[in-house]
Amino acid sequence: MTDAIKIDVWSDIACPWCYIGKRNLEKGLAEASGDEDAPAVEVVFHSFELSPDTPVDFHGGEADYLATHKGISQDQAQQMLDRVTGVAAEAGLEYRFDLLKHTNTVKAHELLHFAKEQGRQHELAERLMSAYFTEGRHLGEEDELVALAADAGLDADAARDALRSGRFLDAVRADQAQAQAYGINGVPFFVIDGKYGVSGAQPAEAFAQIVRQVWTERSEDAPVAV
Questions:
Q1: What dihedral angle (degrees, nearest 10) is formed by the CA atoms of 196, 200, 203, 205?
Q2: What are 6-53's pLDDT values in tens digits?
Q3: Whole-model pTM?
Q4: Of 70, 81, 106, 201, which one has the fewest beta carbons inside 10 Å?
Q5: Measured distance CA(77)–CA(70) in Å, rounded
Q6: Residue 54: closest CA among 99, 12, 4, 23
């Protein structure tokens, strides 16, 4: 039995391309899962803060944030948002930047590590990204995060305790340190089998191709039973 291919994904729940990349990865893995010799894959999400200096309560819309953060005009910022909204739609996601509440994401990352400990990381990652990009939920607020954790099948009281204790902050910082060691300066970033780096929201077929390639390499390198 060949060990599962591990895909380590560095992302931020406030990164629009990360949600697109997540969905495309899922579609690519679903495609490869139909193969006769389907690759076994384990996906783990890691923390990356695109803008750690963002306040919990950012005053202004997403275009305001982009214009200030990137030093561009409001029109240019809106064009960027329109473009990513179109790409998201192609991935089956309905982005609502008119509702989006820009916020600091460190607490959301802490919660994702709590969810990982509870075996619900994938469910929470999906719930947080959907809430942020399509529902206009405020992911900087404790009550919102706890409610979303409950939606993802986690115990609400335990989730609140995890946030208030700050005990998962070190895990967030460790992820960020690992990203720095890898030279990752933008997300989404996928490290496949510990040796292949894939940057950006690649199309689903690209993810299907690389896991098939790695799976084939694994099979060729596997010792022959005598």
A1: 0
A2: 999 999 999 999 999 999 999 999 999 999 999 999 999 999 999 999
A3: 0.95
A4: 70
A5: 9
A6: 12
